[in-house]
Specification:
The chain is an alpha/beta fold and 463 residues long. The chain has a domain at 157-317 and 419-462: D-Maltodextrin-Binding Protein, domain 2, CATH 3.40.190. 43% of the residues lie in helices and 13% in strands. It is built from 19 helices and 15 strands. It has helices spanning 2-24, 27-30, 44-58, 74-86, 102-105, 115-119, 134-137, 162-167, 183-192, 211-221, 234-251, 278-286, 292-297, 335-346, 348-353, 374-384, 401-411, 426-440, 446-462, and strands at 33-38, 66-71, 93-95, 141-142, 145-146, 148-154, 157-161, 198-200, 223-224, 229-230, 267-269, 305-309, 319-328, 370-371, 415-417. The strands form 6 sheets. Strands 3, 6, 13, 14 and 15 form a 5-stranded mixed beta sheet that branches. Strands 1-2 form a two-stranded parallel sheet. The protein is globular.
Length: 463
Amino acid sequence: MKRILCIFLCLITAALCCSCAAKSNSASDTGQLTYYYVKDHRDDMVEKIQRYNRWCYTHSTDDMRIKLIEFDSYETMSRRLNLEVMSGGGPDLFSNYMDLPFEKLLQSGAFYDLNKLIENDTSDDKIDLSLYNDTIMDAGVYNGKRYFIPAFYRVQSLVGERQDFEKFDMPTDQGHHLTFGNMDEVFGRYLEDPGSYAFMAGDVYSGGFNADTAVLRLVNSYVDFEKETVSFDDDFKTKLQFLSRLRENAVAAPEKASSGIGSSAPVLFHQEASYSNPIWTEFMLSLPDEDFVREKLKLAPMDDPVMYSCFEKDDDTFSANIVDALFVNAETKKADKVLAFIKYLLGSHIQNLYTGTNEDYNYGGDVDFLPVLKSAFQNCVRDSHTAGKWFGEEVSPSLHPLTQALVEHVNQINTVYLYFDLYESNYNKNVVIPILQDYWDGKTDINKCVNNLSSATKIYIME
């Protein structure tokens, strides 16, 4: 009897939540699109929506504005979102900053097929997808349906000093393709005797990458959500142990991991020097050693920086992370307004503005990402030649070898991660990280860790 009563109360609670959701989503009564956010949680889409709303105001199209619905905490918003999505509700717009199991929802009919909007548009400013990066844009296509639109993306890399690499017999060629298959060759000598060198600064968050992210990349490379397969084999186990040793050398000795100007404790990789946009890479390379900008950005002077690609699955993988992905609720009744916002995000002005190549660039945000519009990316490459002029240098006829390696990597991208930061993945956050943390804390051994990962992942995929 108690069990029945408990279930009954849970159903009432869920119903009340959905009822409250409908009330707070009252913008639907006025015809506005809706979007949920939390003020103190990183969500780059919010700033873009706010800019779009100002554009609508100045162009006398107030009815096209998007209503931002604020929540007190990320946890509260996540619970609300998951309840509503399960019942076919929720806001009109979603983004990859939200805590939703997107990998599973893509195949559940929760999102609108955006091909319907693009292909059926007969207006003069119809979106021409051939003008955009095919690989990045097609990341949103599942079973022939386009379930999300990427607006910007970034690549992740590792930057260090050539002289430091030479100390540990590491490759010094620019753009060295670091993979899970060759990492033992690259870091074998380093792990034998790291000395005072930390792998990277364990307490620095930069560009969504740190030592933990490398492990998350490994785990995700062995899971295929589309085919619903998991393959954590002995090879995976060996690689996880190796990466965990690298991670340990980043987080176990914080006195080693203090990078930046004037640091007496060296690090192998300077996360804060890793940029995705060639403009900012050239900017970093041209900074005078004692410049106040370098001090403000906490960029340690480097005599001869060398870039590796981030940890990749294999020799043939060149990856990127989506910065802004826009999903649309399958139940929305405002398709015309959705299309207008997508055109705004993909338009030349915004694509150039948010990557630092627009003459109006003054919005004060982080531009360490890349545009999906091909012409805007070419502008990034073009403008990177002039980055040094801010410090009185002449326009360079050629890019620094590090920057050139970055551009070549971008041109070879064939794999796309949905998240700017893998920590934000619902799967990684709720399944992978707690299991890995138990292993790192010594609560489980490697065999137990891998078994737990395998069983938990299968449950996550199938439930």
